[in-house]
Design goal:
Length: 162
């Protein structure tokens, strides 16, 4: 028997499979997701120690050191968090860094394939010091934010500066 026979047999058996576009052909998804995956990508040309990255981030995030974490490529790790609130907290407190390298974090939504997760953008806080009081307002904050990227929100020092 030639080595390609099993492969050709498999191809022949699967060539008649047909996937329909209706929802009934898809497997049912569970109501509750057991984990909340978040992807962390360290932006560095250097190969970093994945175990050090894992332990440092889990400690910084205040998450159990027993949290499952899988390296999906060099300097990119998926953490399987138990609570959605932890995932949101990590995103809210971003950006993060590891040994001076920026870390892009993004929740991995259940309906996304891994290659659909956009790690090319990240949120940063910008602080503008020394502005005259008359310029401390949301309108100028939006102008500064949009000049850098896409404005998200302003955290003004006092209520009177709206």
């Amino acid at each position: 028997m030639d080595a390609s026979d099993p492969v050709n047999g498999l191809i022949k058996m699967t060539s008649t499979l047909d996937f329909l576009d209706d929802e009934n052909s898809l497997p049912e998804t569970p109501d509750k997701i057991p984990h909340f995956p978040i992807i962390a990508k360290i932006l560095s040309d250097k190969t970093l120690n994945n175990n050090a990255i894992k332990s440092t981030l889990l400690k910084a995030w205040g998450i159990s050191p027993k949290t499952p974490a899988n390296v999906i490529e060099q300097n990119t790790i998926v953490f399987l968090l138990e609570r959605e609130i932890d995932c949101r907290g990590i995103e809210r407190q971003s950006p993060w860094s590891f040994r001076g390298n920026l870390i892009v974090t993004r929740p991995w939504l259940p309906e996304e394939a891994l290659d659909e997760v956009d790690l090319s953008k990240f949120q940063i806080w910008v602080q503008a010091y020394g502005l005259p009081v008359m310029y401390v307002n949301k309108k100028l904050a939006e102008k500064i934010g949009n000049a850098i990227g896409s404005f998200i929100e302003a955290d003004l020092a006092t209520e009177s500066h709206r």
